[in-house]
Amino acid sequence: MLKYILRRFSMMILVLFGISILLFTIFNLSPGDPAALILGPGVSKADIQKLRDEMGLDLPFLVRYVNYLSGALRLDFGRSYKTALPVFQELLPRIPVTLIITTFAMLISILLGIPVGVISAVKQNTIFDRMGMFLTLILTSMPPFWLGLMLLFLFSLKLNLLPATSSDSWVSYILPCVTLSSRSTAIIARMIRATMLEVMRQDYIRTAKSKGASRFCIVKNHALKNAMIPVITIIGMNFGFALGGVALIEAVFTMNGVGIMMVEAVRTKDFPITMAVVLILGIAFSLINIFVDILNTIIDPRLRTQWK
């Protein structure tokens, strides 16, 4: 097990190294002079060249990459081209906002999606199944930004129950979390229903039924545990997709998170901010994948036997 975890962490390091060198190459090949962007229009070439020398932009590509990587390992991602402040200082107050939205959105998806999927599988072809699958189909087809706007219109403008913007109190996170969780809830529900139906047809389930076990015991002790193995992987993937798509939700609800900051940095060609955000999101996504793999190993005894 320890060997497996170490191997996964070594793979994560290689992936992050590949992401960093790819992004660094893309931004260095993209048009535009960072020194000119920082100083703005109407500046002499001498001043631009002086700033280029101070920033080390005339150094060879590999030297600049090594310098950047060594700084990133110390959480020194350089300074923002727009504000001239340290990148990590800019990111630090925004990271909790993004983590709160994505984490609670996934909790909502799990707490709603799994029961809906289990009930739909146990009550297959009944009114509960049809209603559950109809609702998940609607949530899957509905663009999150449109759902967010509709929730704002209903709960903020019409009913005046929840705040429309800001992230000052926990109440302001309700609508963004619900909006971000909508599609993940539908995917988890449909996935758990499909796997539950497959598991319920297995021989050991029929054996448990023949021994007189109740339906609740069969679902709780046999079916659900085995059906959760592929669903855990889906949950981990949806967590990563939520981290990537949270920028749209932050823009709709005007939340000062990392996602909307990255969108603004891309628009203004603020390379240090964009590079830092992508690397942090890559680390988070990789850690989530490692956690999911370890959790699958704990749940599935076949994987435990393999790694022993």
How does this model look, in words?
The chain has 308 residues and is an all-alpha fold. It folds into two domains: 21-84, no CATH class; 95-267, MetI-like fold. It contains 14 helices and no strands. The mean pLDDT is 82.
Nutshell version of this structure?
The longest helix has 39 residues, at 215-253. Helices cover 78% and strands 0% of the residues.
Q: What do the pLDDT scores average to?
A: 82
CATH superfamily of the largest domain: MetI-like
Helix share of residues? Answer: over 70%
* Helix segment tally: 14
Give Rg in angstroms: 24 Å
Structural class: mainly alpha
What's the architecture of the largest domain in CATH terms? Orthogonal Bundle
Would you identify the regions where 5 or more consecutive residues have pLDDT less than 50? none
- Content of β-strand: under 5%
**Major β-sheet profile:** none
* Number of strand elements: 0
Query: What global shape is seen?
Result: flat
Please identify the top-level CATH class of the largest domain. Mainly Alpha
- Write down the CATH topology of the largest domain: MetI-like fold
How many domain modules? 2
Distance between the termini: 7 Å
SSE ordering: HHHHHHHHHHHHHH
Short descriptors:
single chain, 308 residues, mainly alpha, MetI-like fold, 2 domains, 14 helices
Please give the structural blueprint.
Blueprint: H1 2-29, H2 34-39, H3 45-55, H4 61-73, H5 87-91, H6 95-122, H7 127-141, H8 144-158, H9 174-200, H10 203-210, H11 215-253, H12 258-267, H13 271-299, H14 301-307
